[in-house]
């Protein structure tokens, strides 16, 4: 296992802008970092059968996600010259316009930070057992397809 510390990726509800700003600010003292790359996933107001989506309710197989994420993190730290990598994904209900995914990678140089961030977003969508149930204005629900 790498010496890089990791945390649970889950955050109850939407991810507040202040948390994102605070996480970025904490890295200003790490002078070996030359680049950060950030992805923020926001709940979009889609239309399903003429009804607007007002929120997404996220659920997950949490223990499996944490196990898989530890392996994925290890792979990313071997593949890219990362200094830090932080990932938060919402659980519970997140309203349209709110942040549900925060991926934050740091490295000495921009290419590793950018490439790792992009690949991590795709990996989360494809490999982790996290599901979103879209809630519409008329309270009907539809399981979201990751793509």
Structure commentary:
This protein has 147 residues and is an alpha+beta fold. 31% of the residues lie in helices and 37% in strands. It is built from three helices and eight strands, in the order E-H-E-E-E-H-E-E-H-E-E. Strands 1, 2, 3, 4, 5, 6, 7 and 8 form an eight-stranded mixed β-sheet that branches. The longest helix is centred in the middle third of the chain and has 18 residues, at 62-79. The chain is elongated and about 50 Å long. The two termini are 30 Å apart. The mean pLDDT is 93.
Number of helices: 3
Structural class: alpha+beta
What string gives the helices and strands in order? EHEEEHEEHEE
Number of strands: 8
Give the N-to-C terminal Cα separation.
30 Å
What kind of oligomer do you see?
Answer: single chain
Q: What percentage of amino acids are in beta strands?
A: 35-45%
Shape: elongated
> pLDDT below 50 for ≥5 consecutive residues: which ranges?
none
- Mean pLDDT comes to 93
Major sheet description: 8 strands, mixed
Helix content: 25-40%
Radius of gyration: 16 Å
Fold topology:
Elements: E1 10-12, H1 17-26, E2 35-42, E3 47-48, E4 51-60, H2 62-79, E5 84-95, E6 99-107, H3 110-127, E7 130-136, E8 141-143
Parallel strand pairs: 1-5
Antiparallel strand pairs: 2-6, 3-4, 4-5, 4-7, 5-6, 7-8
């Amino acid at each position: 296992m790498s010496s890089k510390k990791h945390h649970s990726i889950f955050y109850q509800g939407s991810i507040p802008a202040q948390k994102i700003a605070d996480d970025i600010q904490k890295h200003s003292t790490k002078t070996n970092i030359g680049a950060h790359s950030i992805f923020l996933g926001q709940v979009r107001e889609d239309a399903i059968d003429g009804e607007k989506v007002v929120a997404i309710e996220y659920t997950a197989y949490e223990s499996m996600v944490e196990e898989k994420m530890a392996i994925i993190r290890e792979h990313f730290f071997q593949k890219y010259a990362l200094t830090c990598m932080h990932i938060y994904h919402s659980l519970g209900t997140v309203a349209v316009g709110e942040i549900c995914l925060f991926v934050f990678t740091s490295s000495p140089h921009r290419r590793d930070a950018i490439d790792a961030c992009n690949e991590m977003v795709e990996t989360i969508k494809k490999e982790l057992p996290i599901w979103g149930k879209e809630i519409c204005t008329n309270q009907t629900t539809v399981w979201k397809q990751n793509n």
